[in-house]
Amino acid sequence: MPQIRVKDAALYLGVSDDTVRRWIEAGTIESSRDDAGRTVVDGLTLAQLARSNAVLPADPSEVGRSARNRFVGLVTNIVTDTVMAQVELQCGPHRVVSLMSSEAARELGLELGSVAIAVVKATTVIVETPLGKD
């Protein structure tokens, strides 16, 4: 299992190093020591904690759909011309940008600050891993 240093665990969870240390002290996360004597946490445990702590607003549309990747957020930017629109949403910590027709953006009533749901159905998802693990 991958072992993640406290400072990196904090970065991935969006909390401070001190919060991760408090969770370790409280038994929320188990820790161990790496070969250099640094405190580390199990990568799988960290991933499970990240999933359980991930909080996005509920999808208010009440529409059934096959796409599982739905991100509820707020419209933060709209750039339109006569044919196309670029719509930017802030969905929790995620920035999602959609290209659509200007007509579709008007029909949806999109405006800055409005609530919208980005539905992502992709046949290709690229996964990368960082180089230089220490």
What is the topology?
Blueprint: E1 3-5, H1 6-13, H2 17-26, E2 31-33, E3 39-42, H3 43-53, E4 69-80, E5 84-91, E6 94-101, H4 102-108, E7 115-120
Antiparallel strand pairs: 1-3, 2-3, 4-5, 4-7, 5-6
Biggest sheet details: 4 strands, antiparallel
Q: What is the N-to-C order of secondary-structure elements (H for helix, E for strand)?
A: EHHEEHEEEHE
The number of helical segments is: 4
The total strand number stands at 7
Spatial order of the strands in the main sheet?
Answer: 6-5-4-7
Q: What is the overall shape?
A: elongated
Q: Into which percent range does the helicity of residues fall?
A: 25-40%
> Rg, please?
20 Å
Provide the β-strand percentage band: 25-35%
Mean model confidence by pLDDT: 84
User: Structural class, please?
Assistant: alpha+beta
Question: What is the end-to-end distance?
Answer: 15 Å
Unreliable stretches, pLDDT < 50, 5 or more residues? none
